[in-house]
Structure prediction request, 167 residues.
Amino acid sequence: MIPAAVRLPLLALLVGIAIGWAVNGWRMGVELSDLRAGHAQQLERNAAAQAAAIAEQQQIRAQLVQQLAAIDQQRYQELTHAQTTTDALAADLAAARQRLRVRIDPASCPSLSAATGTGAAGLDDGAGARADLHPSAAAGVVRVTGRADQCRARLTALQEWVRAANR
Prediction:
C-alpha cells in the first residue's frame, strides 16, 4: 500500500498528466486538422493545374488533328488529280488521239539523215529530228512518269505530315 502522504501528490500528478495529455491531444488534433485541410487544398491546386495542362494538351492535339486532316485532304486531291491526268493522257496516247514526239539524233540513224538531207532551217535549229513513239510505248512512258509524279505527291504529303506532327 501507498502511504497517505504520497497518495495525494501522486494523485495530483496523475490528474495533471491526464489533463495535460487531453489538452495536448486537442492541440495536436487541431494541428492535424489544419495539416489535413492544407493538404486537401494543395491536392485541389495540383488537380486544377493538371486539369488545365490536360485541357491545353487536348486543344493542341485537336489543332494538330485539324492541320493533318487539311494536309491529307489537299494532298489526296493533288494525288487524285495527278492520277486522273496521267490515266487520261495514257488512254489518249494508247488510242492514238495524241502523239508523243521525242527528239532523235540524225547521226544515229543514217537512213534518216540521207532521207531528210540538209533542208531549210526550222524554228528550233540544232534541236535535231523528231520521231513519234508507238502509241503503246508512249502510253507506257506516260504511266511511268505518272507513277513518279504520284510518288512525289505521296512523299511531299508524308514530309508535310511529319513536319506538322513534330511542331
